[in-house]
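Before relying on records like the one below, remember that each one covers exactly one chain. Contacts with other chains, cofactors or solvent are not represented anywhere in the record.
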Amino acid sequence: MATVSNVTQGTVFKGTGVVAGIRYAPAVWISPRPELPTAGDVVAEDLREAELERFKNAADVVAARLAERSEKAEGPAAEVLKATSGMVNDRGWRKAVNKGIKGGHPAEYAVVAATTKFISMFEAAGGIIAERTTDLRDIRDRVIAELRQEQEPGLPSVDGPVVLFADDLSPADTAALDTSLFVGLVTELGGPTSHTAIIARQLNVPCIVAAGHKIHEITAGTDVLVDGALGTITLGADAVEAAAMVEESLAAAARIAEWKGPAQTSDGHRVQLLANVQDGNGARQAATTEAEGVGLFRTELCFLSATEEPSVDEQAEVYAKVLSAFPKSKVVVRSLDAGSDKPVPFASMADEMNPALGVRGLRIARGNVELLTRQLDAVAKAVKILGRGDEAPTWVMAPMVATAYEAQWFAGMCRERGLIAGAMIEVPAAVLMADKIMPHLDFVSIGTNDLTQYTMAADRMSPQLAYLTDPWQPAVLRLIRHTCEEGRRFNTPVGVCGEAAADPLLALVLTGLGVNSLSAASTAIAAVGAQLSEVDFETCKKVAAAALDAEGATEARDAVRAVLAEVS
């Protein structure tokens, strides 16, 4: 491929790095989506039944293709593809398309109109739900292509290693990547919790999201050097130097793959590494890694599609699948974290002007305490069925705790059922009131995603605000330091279970601040453990001090790298 571009050689673009690794290859853009139709002529009434059948057949084909791919995929990729296939079969969406066709619209335009309506609804909901708009646009485009008997949009055909560029990647495209050819990913949109990021972590392919519209100035064929840790895309890099950087990155990846736990610094300071999971499959996958247990079991993700609250027995069965994957290890269960970006149909709440600051997490139980008591009963029942004892403790933590009363109330409910009680530290008030909250609890776990969002007053799902919703922000690190100081004072273990725990460099800072455990996606555990093993605890303290003293997130990263360069 030719090395040409619309921008000056040596230009560096910056996004949010979500999977570390350095690669050097020509850029290629994802195949264009179909041109969207306009309303067009009204379909005659006697032809509308055939138009309905044409839409049904096209949607069925697309759903079947996605379902077939989900069966061939593994882990999160399979789950995401299955969910996307489910969106094509969603009765509400199909009903909206059928309504448009019955009103006289051609099938193609009815698909566009219905999808636009749902996109608006998802964007209004915000958060994780808003990120599903990429999935909606993807199924819209696939169904339109099928209606037109055109080639399915998506990955381009390539004959050698490339770095894939896109506005955003659909789950189907990301899950289908051949990582021997598509050696890096860069997207204009997205965020650290988008499906692109989730699957890229599973595939372990260097990935940068939220790189901004300027990347469209990079033309296909331009040689680019991408650094998934720094989040940089560099044009005009020296080919020899770039090749050496790639080799060094691959060698580091090989060392990481060989790392064995338990995690500790070079001088023996222990840090417990745990896995974030959402169901039994994820827990079983995590159990094959060096994870010492589960640090975050996201129970709500088991029930996002449930129209009615599962019974205690049904919930206990789900929880038992996770607990049984770690029969002799700690498992931390988070109570239902519904609301805001995770609406659960059976936990109905009124519309709110700002749901991220509204009735979510533990706050739901103020108006529906039975929902929480049944969930805790189910956890206790699963523990009893499996006969878990002191060697396999079951900890339960509540999200969105903001006051000492909430901590005391929740802890009492847990202890009545023989469960170890804790709370998420994700509201700044909980940090400032840690001296009043911790005496009621057995442990706390810092959710850096929300703590950063609330500290910086910036929506963590907004790609435009990714520079603010960065856990490297010194303001966030100072809150973590205070939490750890109070944890030591009250002998309360402090963990981190947000995205920050998956960043090997930031793990050094968190360890230096006094964090006792780190919980991350199971695919990130080896990289974190390997990084910890290369430095002593005193160095962790030094990098923590450097990051705390920085003026911003970028400066904090640079300061930590400078310290590590000095001691190496």
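The chain has a mean pLDDT of 89.
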